[in-house]
């Protein structure tokens, strides 16, 4: 029974189901340990040597495993060592942001082999924006250098309230009767899954980023908006309806600013990338100086990316405005730390690429507003994957889905 041809089969039973389960167990073991002998697998999985041997041979025939050498031995016959085959199958990760799309292709050994960044795109809830997204995805597949049957699954992450079980986004592309996942799958012929961007980024960082042995983690995604990815005991926490992590829409401020969600006073109205752009534009209009004025005649042309770049070029006004945003974020994050008492908090998203210009004011605010007993026991780190966290997470989520 071919593993890859039957990964989407839900009606397997009896011997076929047992064989599929054993193959998944072997692949999961190699995910963690990278290499193994027949004896290692038999002992760990409590399966007889003949059965393990025949199953490994099947996986080798399918390209999912390969022999990579022999182990050292003090005497007797040296045992064969096996590992995963990188080109057995591939996974696509698509990160959709407000004004661009980034796509990555991951091989079976969890290595990104092709990435196309910052593809111009405008995320809007209309048919034109949806058609453009489909066009971008199809074009990447066409020029990926990988035959379509080898691309096993597509993972798409974007902002909004998303039901990852159905592939439905309640903020974008909800004007048709079909969920986004189904639409993309129908267009490409590849099983497609949708998830929230902050959750995907959190999972990418958990698997391949700054996380070491921690299992309870909060990932703060600070971009145009503010999102939260929650990992508890090594698993993504979705909540009952799948909408957990709406950190940016906590009614944190007593102001009259209307958030894009339609309510007033949300955290995002004063502590987000969009709030940072508004604050800096106000300062420039009031006569403050900045290198941002060197290339922009119209203040409305200044983007969040421009401000982040200015920060990293030591522009004082950009740094001061970033500190204002960081202080407010830190105060809100103090409540999260007091509630969850996590092992680790990670700062991700575009604003986190300014490193200490954001992290230090957040840390100072956390020290001021959170319980010292909890705060002292919670490291605050910046994402290691940075702007690759989203596509890594999208690929890894769909890869994991075939091994569950």
Instruction: From the alpha carbons, calculate the radius of gyration and give it in angstroms.
Output: 24 Å
Q: What would CATH call the architecture of the largest domain?
A: 2-Layer Sandwich
User: Total domains, how many?
Assistant: 3
Integer average pLDDT:
90
- Order of secondary-structure elements: HHHEEEEEHEEEHEHEEEHHHEHHEH
Looking at the structure, the CATH topology of the largest domain is Nucleotidyltransferase, domain 5
The number of helical segments is 12
Largest sheet: 5 strands, mixed
Q: Strands of the biggest beta sheet: in what spatial order?
A: 5-4-3-6-9
Q: Would you state the CATH class of the largest domain?
A: Alpha Beta
Low-confidence stretches: none
**Total beta-strand segments:** 14
Could you describe the 3D structure shown?
- With 404 residues, the chain is α/β, with parallel strands linked by helices.
- It has three domains: 4-86, Winged helix-like DNA-binding domain superfamily/Winged helix DNA-binding domain (Arc Repressor Mutant, subunit A); 89-201 and 390-401, ATPase, nucleotide binding domain (Nucleotidyltransferase, domain 5); 213-382, Nucleotidyltransferase, domain 5.
- It has helices spanning 14-33, 38-45, 49-61, 127-142, 180-188, 197-208, 273-285, 304-312, 316-340, 356-369, 372-375, 389-401, and strands at residues 65-70, 80-84, 90-96, 100-107, 112-120, 151-158, 162-163, 168-169, 192-196, 217-222, 226-232, 235-236, 344-348, 380-382.
- The strands form four sheets. The chain has a five-stranded mixed β-sheet, sandwiched between helices.
């Amino acid at each position: 029974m071919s593993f890859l041809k039957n990964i989407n089969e839900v009606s397997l039973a009896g011997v076929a189901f047992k064989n599929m389960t054993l193959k998944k167990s072997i692949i999961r073991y190699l995910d963690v340990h990278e290499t193994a002998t027949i004896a290692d697998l038999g002992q760990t999985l409590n399966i007889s040597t003949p059965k393990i041997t025949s199953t490994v041979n099947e996986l080798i025939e399918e390209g999912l495993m390969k022999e990579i050498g022999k182990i050292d031995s003090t005497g007797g016959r040296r045992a064969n060592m096996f590992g995963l085959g990188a080109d057995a199958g591939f996974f696509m990760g698509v990160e959709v942001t407000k004004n661009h799309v980034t796509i990555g292709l991951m091989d079976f050994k969890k290595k990104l082999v092709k990435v196309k960044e910052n593809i111009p795109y405008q995320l809007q809830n209309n048919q034109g924006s949806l058609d453009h997204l489909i066009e971008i995805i199809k074009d990447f597949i066409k020029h990926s250098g990988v035959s379509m049957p080898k691309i096993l699954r597509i993972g798409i992450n974007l902002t909004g309230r998303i039901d990852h079980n159905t592939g439905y986004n309640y903020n974008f592309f909800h004007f048709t009767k079909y969920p986004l996942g189904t639409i993309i799958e129908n267009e490409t012929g590849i099983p497609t899954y949708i998830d929230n961007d902050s959750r995907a980024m959190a999972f990418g960082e958990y698997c391949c980023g700054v996380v070491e042995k921690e299992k309870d983690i909060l990932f703060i995604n600070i971009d145009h908006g503010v999102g939260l990815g929650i990992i508890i005991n090594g698993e993504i926490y979705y909540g009952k309806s799948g909408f957990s992590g709406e950190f940016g829409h906590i009614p944190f401020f007593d102001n009259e600013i209307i958030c894009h969600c339609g309510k007033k006073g949300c955290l995002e109205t004063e502590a987000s990338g969009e709030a940072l752009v508004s604050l800096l534009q106000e300062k420039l209009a009031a006569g403050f100086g900045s290198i941002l004025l060197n290339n922009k005649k119209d203040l409305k042309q200044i983007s969040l990316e421009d401000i982040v770049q200015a920060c990293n070029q030591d522009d004082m006004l950009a740094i001061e405005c970033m500190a204002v945003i960081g202080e407010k974020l830190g105060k809100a994050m103090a409540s999260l730390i007091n509630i969850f008492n996590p092992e680790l908090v990670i700062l991700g998203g575009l604003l986190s690429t300014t490193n200490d210009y954001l992290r230090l004011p957040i840390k100072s605010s956390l020290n001021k507003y959170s319980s010292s007993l909890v705060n002292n026991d919670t490291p605050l780190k910046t994402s290691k994957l940075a702007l690759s966290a989203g596509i890594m997470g999208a690929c890894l989520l769909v890869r994991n889905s075939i091994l569950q």
